[in-house]
Amino acid sequence: MTKLYGLNDTVVPNQDGLFGEFGGKIGHPALAAAMQEIEDGFRAMIADENFLKEIEALQLHYVGRPSPIYHARRLSEHLGGAQIYLKREDLNHTGSHKINHCLGEVLLAKRLGKKKVIAETGAGQHGVALATASALLGLECEIHMGVVDIAKEHPNVSRMKILGATLVPVSRGAGTLKEAVDSAFESYLNQLDDSMFAIGSVVGPAPYPEMVGYFQSIVGHEARRQFSELTGGLPDVVTACVGGGSNALGLFNAFLDDDTVRKVGVEPAGEGLDSHHRHAATLTLGVKGEIQGFKCYVLLDENGEPAPVHSIASGLDYPGVGPQHSYLKDSGQVEYQSATDQECLDAFMLLSRMEGIIPALESSHAVAFAIREAKKLGKDQKILVNLSGRGDKDLDFVLSQIDV
Ligand SMILES: *Cc1c(COP(=O)(O)O)cnc(C)c1O
Fold it and tell me: Are residue 33 and residue 77 in the same domain, yes or no?
């Protein structure tokens, strides 16, 4: 049987939920007990053949996996350098990679006898994917979302409502992703027995970074096999955008033992790395610190609190990042670069016009890096981009930014 799931040893935490010095378990006693229940349930579930059969069948018949790898010939020719390939997570049901971990999380909640899943969402992609998996598997779904994001991501808000989720608008602070996480955790504390928290990326306390990473590992296992079938070898570079880091970890995981393959995570440089709080380039400019119950690189303000951040892509504007990525940066196994809002918009338009593929603004950061890098490399070199989602949610916003 071909392997679909499983993490490389270097991105599995120790008993304390640590990847090197990063990550960690939650201290709060009631929450600690809830986290342990989830961790034990997760370990039992992934050792259960019936579960693996169930999720594989859903991935095949419901999500539409495996998502294809596509050689972007016209774009590559236009750039005159390396060949660009896309892992088409945008073609998944619900339009992004997030359905991969949402199916896993909702299956786990059901297995634990919970009635409801609770989560935060940024761009609304995690909320939509979780509301979808909840509708499919018959659970209630409560989604916390910043009011700024609600205004920006209207179609996803409508989708969540139609799918039957309860939407909780969060207006405190900057009204974006970080505040939504805090609000969702507070609500969870009041309903620990009946519900399960379902984080939307490889962030938060243990077991979430490992668990979400595990469910996303299907992307890399598929991609590695598909790429060698298609080209007879491995890519020279694999790249993905990094918000919390789940789509990037999902892809990179399968290539961590391949020293010949460069792994490059791309962070949002927003209005520039030298701007004041107008970027979210956590691994590029952050320091080691704590956010929401785990240790990672983090962007701090003048008072040592998590800083306000900005990206043109709502799904990337978070001042922390997954502990695995913090670890992989320090170990040198993965490189982290960034792309600005403008580079991202240019990449969004170029991919749309050259290939008829409209990428999500989040994914456009990885496309922007690939465009920059392809020009420096020879025509025999190959770059594999994780196209984490489609741009349907971003159309009006992009049209408000540029004349077409
Ligand atoms: C949420 C989202 C991201 C960012 O999340 P990661 O955990 O960093 O992958 C990237 N792309 C799309 C399309 C998203 O919806």
Answer: no
Same domain assignment for residues 78 and 91? yes
Which pTM value belongs to this model?
0.97
Q: What is the pLDDT of residues 244-287, one digit of tens each?
A: 999 999 999 999 999 999 999 999 999 999 999 999 999 999 99
Both 268 and 354 in one domain: the answer is yes
Structural domain ending residue among the three candidates 183, 204, 225: 204
pLDDT tens-digit readout, 44-60? 999 999 999 999 999 99
* Pocket flag, ligand 1, residue 127 (CB < 6 Å): no
Is residue 10 in some structural domain?
Answer: no
Q: Interhelix angle for 341-355 vs 361-374, to 10°?
A: 80
Query: What does the block give as tokens for 395?
Result: 């159309």
Residues 44 and 159 in one domain: yes
Q: Are 85 and 71 in contact (CB under 8 A)?
A: yes
* H or E stretch covering 170: strand 166-170
> What is the residue with the minimal CA distance to atom 7 of ligand 1?
246
pLDDT band for position 1 (cuts 50, 70, 90):
low
Query: Both 382 and 329 in a single domain?
Result: yes
Based on the domain organization, do 348 and 265 belong to the same domain?
yes
The residues pairing with 19 across neighbouring beta strands, listed in sequence order, are 22
Alpha carbons 386 and 69: distance in angstroms, whole number: 9
Q: What percent of the chain has pLDDT over 70?
A: 100
Same domain flag for 385 and 311? yes
- Rounded CA gap, 242 and 344, in Å? 13
Domain count, the chain: 2
Task: Give the residue, out of 160, 178, 241, 312, with the most ligand 1 atoms within 8 A of its beta carbon, to mutate for a pocket test.
Answer: 241
Final residue before a domain boundary, out of 172, 188, 204: 204
Q: Assess whether the C-beta atom of 96 lies below 6 angstroms from ligand 1.
A: yes
pLDDT, tens digit (0-9, with 9 covering 90-100), for 5-40? 999 999 999 999 999 999 999 999 999 999 999 999
DSSP summary character for residue 277: S
Catalytically active residues are 98, 120, 388
Q: Assess whether 42 and 155 both reside in one domain.
A: yes
* Domain interval for residue 124: 19-62+98-204
- Positions of E strands within 72-225: 83-88, 116-121, 140-146, 166-170, 195-197
Q: Is the CB of 123 under 6 A from ligand 1?
A: yes
- Crossing angle of helices 125-137/98-111, nearest 10°? 40
